[in-house]
Structure formats: C-alpha cells, structure tokens
Amino acid sequence: ARLGTERITADDCERMQAEYDLMVTAISERRVVDLLDHDEALLTILYTASGNPVLVNMIRTLWQHCRAYKIVGAQGTLDAEGADALWRYQKDLVAAARKQDGVAALSVSDASLDNATQRIRALLAAQKDEERASAL
C-alpha cells in the first residue's frame, strides 16, 4: 500500500475512485460478492502501482483462499450496526493515494486489516456459540 501510493498515477486514482463508488453502491444494495469484487479491484489498482507483480499475484491468491471468510465478515457487518467499516478505510485509502501519502496509506491498510480480522473472528465465535446453544 505504501509503495503503490507513492508511485500511483492520477488515472489510477480515478480508477480507484470508480471502484470505490461501485463498492458503496453494492453495500447499499447489500450485494456482498460485488462489494468484495470492487474492494479487491480497488486494492489491485493500488498494489499494481507498487511495481511488484509477484506480490500482487500472491495477494490475489490469498484473497481467493480466504474468500469464504471475507464473505462471512462482510455479510455479518452488513447485518450489524457499524457497516461503515466496509467503506471508510477504502475512502481513506483513495484519499491517501491522491496525495501520494505512503505513510497514511500504510496506516489505513493496517487499520483495515486489523478491523476486518476482529470482525471476522467475532462473527465466527458468535456462530460457534449459536451452534453450541442449538445443540443443547
């Protein structure tokens, strides 16, 4: 995120903004898979600007492997209050990219990953608790 932000072009920022706008529409229409597709497209634009195609490919592969967890996290967030976690980090990331502020982009990226991890863990724990309760 940091390196991509430092090297990104204005055209890439516009493409990121377009993906962000589509992502927000998907959120408002509760289309989780489309939300994730646009989020990943936005991030791919940024990461590609870093000039490290091997890393971008590795990240995209990891996204595919954890897609089910991402769906659980996004759907759970849509169903709960605080759905701004699905868009606020990307908004800040686009702003950091426009300013070519790599430090801000790194901070936003770290905060987003931490938030997503916490949300997914909480949702999975709640599901496990529900399964235990229903088994009794």
Task: Describe it.
The structure is a single chain. With 136 residues, the protein is an all-alpha fold. 84% of the residues lie in helices and 0% in strands. The chain has seven helices and no strands. Helix 6 packs antiparallel against helix 7.
Runs in which pLDDT lies below 50 for 5 or more consecutive residues are none
Total of DSSP H or I helical runs spanning 4+ residues: 7
The largest sheet, given as strand count, sense and whether it forms a barrel, is:
none
Question: What's the assembly state of these chains?
Answer: single chain
Q: What Rg is obtained from the alpha carbons, in whole angstroms?
A: 16 Å
Estimate the global geometry from the Cα principal axes.
Answer: elongated
**Cα distance spanning the termini:** 46 Å
Percent strand: under 5%
- Number of extended strands: 0
Order of helices and strands: HHHHHHH
Q: Find the structural class using helix and strand composition.
A: mainly alpha
